[in-house]
Amino acid sequence: MLKMSNKDGLHGSHFLLGLSLLHFLRSGGSLIAYAEANTNNSNRGHVAHADAITSNSIAHADANTSKKKKVVVLGTGWAGMSFLKNLNNSTYDVKVVSPRNFFVFTPLLPSVTCGKVEARSIVEPIRNIIRKKNINVSYCEAECIKIDPASKKIYCRAARATLNTNSKQGEEFEVDYDYLIIAVGAQVNTFNTPGVEGNCHFLKEIEDAQKIRKNVIESFEKASLPNLSEEERKKILHFVVVGGGPTGVEFSGELRDFVNEDVLKLYPTVQHLVKITVIEATDHILNMFDKRITKFAESKFLRDDIDVKLGSMVTKITENEISTKAKGSDKTTSTPYGMVLWSTGIGQRPLIKDFMKQIGQGNRRALATDEWLRVEGCDNVYALGDCATINQRKVVEDIAEIFKRADKDNSGTLTVKKFTDIMDDVIARYPQVKLYMKSKRVRNFVDILTEAKGNAAKETIELSIEEFKTALSVVDSKMKNLPATAQVANQQGAYLAKCFNRMEECEKNPEGPPRFRGTGRHRFHPFRYRHLGQFAPLGGEKTAAQLPGDWVSIGHSSQWLWYSIYASKLADKSIGGVGLDTAFYLWEGRQWNLSQSNRSLGLVFGGPGGFGPLAVFSVN
């Protein structure tokens, strides 16, 4: 573990501050988008939207536009923006449709909730992204409410009224497409638990983080009032987190750091009354991580006085109490609380549910696509990110075709030589084969075939179709759905953009694996997810990292690795903002951040006072 002294931390803060100032003059566009997104009465926001109308009009006036294939991208999250940033084929007319006119760096949302990072620092305006493209791209601030794949249209509702027209809020319009990219993400899954919608906070959008931040501050202010009993103060300062995944764990760690580092100075009379509870339905928190990380996280939370209730399910939430039931028990326990964060999983948006019913996927949890991210049953519609799942084809479904392709002399048996000739094609088409080989720690898939013949020498092996089927039937056991993470969505967007960049070329000269059903080759290689590792900040400047190669690191060194990797993913202007926020946090704690938050709340929540985030930096 890398240990850092306070002196090291101070030098680190100077370095971050210097880095931030280098980017200072280049950081401005994100403030415009953030202000525009959070106020309907700002002149700046209206002017930006009017400019959108002008740019769209110019785009439609271009005679060449009508000759180009129309690509419509729904959503401005990880998948949609990764696709847009990597698309460089000028033969497309691209239109982005989303009610949110900025991209949010979601991994840093928990850091916004307690003041370590400012909200404006983790947003990037869509128009800044579009401005850098050398292809024809336009943006509509609207919400897609219906998809009509038969007529290749989407139906949209304007997000708000515009300045230079007499249109009303919610005006609807149609958009035609040749290709549709669905990347709208997902919404919080409440599992139909009574009271969740009206009494809980969520953490998926920038507004969610600001609401939590406001609630945390107000909870301590309210608990400091002189006319309350100690029991009332305990209730107000009881923060409950439902869900022991990465988001819930990171928020709990951020909140505990805030209590330990800042509440003692800001609210000394109530610091000892704070209680943080994490409720997890399974047997462990961070159960998608390595067991070593899970064990460390649970022991750290125990040392930090964070109450972790494992095997506990929430049955109901009222305005004042949360009811839980332990696994295997019928007894329900009700506990007073001050604030609840619900972070238990994702569900599909109404748009996706309706679309799934239209195309016969109404009984699925997510929109099913093939390995090329194409929605099943819709040739020109693609879906990626949290709203979709890849329906990977099983090897056993194509056993007969694979056997026939390998058995070129029609002998009815396969030798090692015959299978070796098509092995690379099989691995390219079915990713579960490679995963199975990795789990068995074998380099050559032929070694797996020998299991069907015992200890026979490879050269003498001959398999019938039934023996071949038995040997390969175990391979599909390694099939699993990809996690709903930013890493997956980002890779999918980049992959699909690469396909679109080479669409015409690959139509003429396909570069994918051979078709086992039919003739010829697939146009492209199927999507392959490459897991680059995962991080779980645990508070106290300690992060758990699980990286490829079964490498696990926990401690301060992992925290700085987490900082550096996320910094590399941020836009230049955001690096300056996050770096400056982090520098002030390391130098003075969250006091500066929280004071700025209080001043900017007037802009976000419509409260009085404050100059808003636009006044923090000069925007030219």
Automatic annotation (TrEMBL):
PROSITE patterns for this protein: EF_HAND_2
Domain EF-hand: 394-429
Keyword annotations: FAD, Flavoprotein, Membrane, Mitochondrion, Mitochondrion inner membrane, NAD, Oxidoreductase, Peroxisome, Signal
Membrane topology: Peripheral membrane protein
Residues making up the signal peptide according to the UniProt record: 1-37
EC number: 1.6.5.9
InterPro entries, alphabetized: EF-hand-dom_pair (IPR011992), EF_hand_dom (IPR002048), FAD/NAD-bd_sf (IPR036188), FAD/NAD-binding_dom (IPR023753), NDH-2 (IPR045024)
Keyword 4Fe-4S included in the entry's annotation: no
Locations listed in the record: Mitochondrion inner membrane; Peroxisome
Keyword Flavoprotein carried by entry: yes
Listed Gene3D superfamilies: 3.50.50.100
Pfam short name (any one): Pyr_redox_2
Main location: mitochondrion
Reactions accelerated catalytically: a ubiquinone + NADH + H(+) = a ubiquinol + NAD(+); a quinone + NADH + H(+) = a quinol + NAD(+)
Family to which the UniProt record says this protein belongs: Belongs to the NADH dehydrogenase family.
UniProt protein name: NADH:ubiquinone reductase (non-electrogenic)
Species of origin: Hibiscus sabdariffa (roselle)
